[in-house]
Amino acid sequence: MDFSEDGTLLACADDNTLVIYDALNAKKMKTLFNKVNGISNVRFTHSNDAVICSCKNPPCKYYSRDFENVRNNWPDFID
Length: 79
What we know:
Blueprint: E1 2-3, E2 9-14, E3 17-22, E4 27-34, E5 40-44, E6 50-54, E7 61-64, H1 68-73, E8 77-78
Antiparallel strand pairs: 1-2, 2-3, 3-4, 4-8, 5-6, 6-7
């Protein structure tokens, strides 16, 4: 679990799921699944627009807030 630098976003990872929340309004913004490699240890980068996660199987994954590039580059991610 990690908050963005400005505290407006919260990223949570558990097994196969990454969830991004609007921390100010307590609303879920986006959920992504990685059923092949799993997701853990999520951290925001220096930007509010991206997080990096470790996986059960390498490599680490990078997610942009846009999420469209994630789906195109890693077909094992399901929205």
